[in-house]
Amino acid sequence: QVQLVESGGGLVQAGGSLRLSCAASGNFFSINSMGWYRQAPEKQRDLVATIISGGSTNYAESVKGRFTISRDNAKKAVYLQMNSLKPEDTAVYYCHVRVLSGLRYLEVWGQGTLVTVSS
Known about the structure:
mainly beta
């Protein structure tokens, strides 16, 4: 079993900042990748940013230059610093990790945290 606990969502005005956190716990050997996805009402879930174990990052074009993903391997945590927020960033943000458990990889999702950006 692998659990993810997310925090940091909330209501912010356009131009403001928020920082999302996600910590993993449970029975696994290592974390391969960590990332954030988001889902706006009546839309599909889309990638926001990912970071792999070596530190390489990948961002959606719409957040490049505004969002920064980072991870703390010792804490088994991933963070998303969101600056210059826009109303179109409003969505439920989901943490995602890919972990090695036993001889297989597991894909795990957090419960989601709501980010609302007012204009």
